[in-house]
Design goal:
This protein is α+β, with helices and mostly antiparallel strands. The chain has ten helices and 13 strands. Strand 4 and strand 5 form a beta hairpin. It is globular and about 60 Å long. It starts with a helix and ends in a 9-residue tail after the last helix.
C-alpha cells in the first residue's frame, strides 16, 4: 500500500491528472450542467457550429420517429456514401458508414454488403436508445462521410483517424491523434484498440503513441512509423478547438476533429468528460498545463482582458511545446 501511495504521489508531482481531480477540479468546476445537452447531442452541436460559422460534416437529414424512417430514401438521394449515427451515442457505437453503392444495395466501409432494409433496422435501433447515453430515446443523424486526408494512408487502418484537443476555458492544453487499427474495427476508439498518438501543440508534429497501454512507435497493421508526422493545417485545428469555448460555453472539453481530403479540418463532436489516456500518448501530465492556463486567466482578469480564440491558441502554442514527463 505504501508503495502505491508513493507511486501516485510521484505521478501527481509530475502533473499526471487522475479521474477524481479531473471531475472535481475541472469538469464540475467549469462545466455547467444545463449546457451538457449542447455537447451530448451531436445534432445540437452541429447546429450550433453551423450557426457560428464553424466547419462540420454536412448534415443531410435527421430521423426522430419510426414514421420518419420512410424519409430515408429522400434524405440519401443518389449519394454513393454517407454516415448514419446516433445523436447521443458514445464510443462510436451504433455508427454505420456507407462507402459505396452495389447494385440495389450498399457497401459499408469494411466491404460488407447490406440492404436498404438493414439500414432502416439500424436507424430503428438508434431511435429506441440502444446506443444512447443513459438508454434514452434518440435521433438518427445522416451526414457527409469524411474521406481522410492522404497523410493518414500509411499510418491508419480503414476508418477515419481523428484528432482530439483538450481545451480549458478556450485554451488548448493537449492534443492526440487517434488512429484506427484492425483490432478496433476501423474505429478511432482507444478502448476498442485504436492507437493514441501525442501531438506537439506548437507544431502539429506527432510524437510516440500508445496502444493497449503499451508505448509504440509503429502502427501494428501498416508497420509504418506513427511519430514524426507533420499534420497539415495544424493552426486550423487549433483555431477550431479554441473557438469551441464560445460555441458551447463549457470550460473543460475534448474537441474531436477530422481532416477531410477536400474540406480540411472539420469538427465531429465535443465531449464534456474527455478521457485521460491523452497523457499517456503525450508522455506528459495535464495538471501543470491546466494550472498555467488558470494562472493566465487570473492575470488577465485583473486587467479586465479577455483573449480572442487566436490569442488563446498562440499562448498555448508558445507555452506547451511538448515536454516529456521524464523532463519535468
Amino acid at each position: 500500500m505504501f508503495g502505491l501511495i508513493k507511486t501516485w504521489k510521484a505521478l501527481e508531482a509530475k502533473g499526471i491528472m487522475g479521474i477524481n481531480r479531473r471531475n472535481a477540479d475541472y469538469v464540475l468546476k467549469y462545466n455547467k450542467r444545463h449546457l451538457y445537452p449542447i455537447v451530448d447531442d451531436k445534432i445540437i452541436t452541429k447546429q450550433r457550429a453551423i450557426e457560428a460559422g464553424i466547419d462540420v460534416p454536412e448534415m443531410y437529414g435527421v430521423i426522430d420517429t419510426e414514421k420518419g424512417i420512410d424519409n430515408l430514401r429522400a434524405i440519401i438521394g443518389d449519394r454513393p456514401d454517407f454516415v448514419v449515427k446516433p445523436a447521443q451515442g458514445a464510443g462510436g457505437d451504433g455508427i454505420l458508414v456507407i462507402a459505396d453503392r452495389f447494385e440495389e444495395k450498399y457497401k459499408t466501409v469494411s466491404g460488407k454488403i447490406i440492404s436498404h432494409e438493414e439500414i432502416e433496422h439500424q436507424i430503428s435501433s438508434i431511435l429506441t436508445g440502444l446506443y444512447s447515453l443513459g438508454g434514452h430515446r434518440d435521433r438518427a443523424l445522416i451526414e457527409y462521410r469524411v474521406t481522410p486526408d492522404q497523410i493518414f494512408k500509411s499510418i491508419s487502418y480503414e476508418g477515419v483517424p481523428d484528432i482530439r484537443i483538450i481545451v480549458l476555458m478556450g485554451y488548448p492544453v493537449m492534443a492526440m491523434l487517434r488512429l484506427p487499427t484492425r483490432q478496433s474495427g476501423g474505429k478511432a476508439n482507444l478502448h476498442q484498440g485504436a492507437i493514441g498518438v501525442g501531438v506537439d501543440l506548437a507544431t502539429g508534429v506527432t510524437l510516440r503513441g500508445t496502444w493497449l497501454n503499451n508505448k509504440i512507435s509503429k502502427h501494428p497493421d501498416t508497420t509504418n512509423a506513427v511519430d514524426g508526422v507533420q499534420l497539415p493545417n495544424w493552426d486550423g485545428f487549433m483555431k477550431l478547438a479554441a473557438g469551441c469555448y464560445e460555441l458551447c460555453g463549457l470550460g473543460y472539453i475534448g474537441v474531436d476533429m477530422v481532416l477531410d481530403q477536400d474540406k480540411g479540418p472539420l469538427i465531429l463532436e465535443l465531449n464534456a468528460r474527455p478521457g485521460l489516456n491523452i497523457q499517456i500518448a503525450n508522455d506528459c501530465g495535464l495538471t501543470h498545463r491546466a494550472h498555467a492556463v488558470e494562472a493566465r486567466l487570473a492575470e488577465l482578469a485583473k486587467k479586465g482582458i479577455q483573449e480572442t480564440p487566436e490569442e488563446r491558441m498562440r499562448f498555448s502554442q508558445g507555452l506547451f511545446g511538448h515536454v516529456s514527463i521524464a523532463e519535468i
